[in-house]
Specification:
It is built from three helices and no strands. The radius of gyration is 30 Å and the shape is elongated. The longest helix has 39 residues, at 7-45. By secondary structure, the protein is mainly alpha-helical.
């Protein structure tokens, strides 16, 4: 075996990984590791046709549909102002 790792060491390593990650996570872990190695190999060898350097990437801004404008905010009573008004009316009673 390469790097002086024998079959016994590999079996011990696989049992430890199985105990740590569990049988349900091992296929997902293997897929993600294999995909990462494949992507790394393709980037090093220059393969993989998804290199789009000639087209600029379009970055979209944040969703502004849930933003309160300053004019609308000035019309609304803030929580602090409401508490102060309620405290003044309670003190006046």
């Amino acid at each position: 075996m390469p790097f002086g790792v024998g079959a016994t060491e590999l079996i011990i390593l696989l049992v430890i990984v199985l105990i740590i990650f569990g049988p349900k996570k091992l296929p997902q872990l293997g897929r993600s590791l294999g995909g990462g190695l494949r992507e790394f190999k393709n980037s090093v060898s220059g393969k993989g046709g998804d290199d789009d350097d000639d087209e600029p990437e379009v970055i979209e801004g944040p969703d502004r549909s849930n933003v309160t404008t300053a004019a609308a905010a000035s019309d609304e009573e803030t929580e602090t102002a409401r508490r102060q008004r309620e405290a003044k009316t309670a003190d006046a009673s």
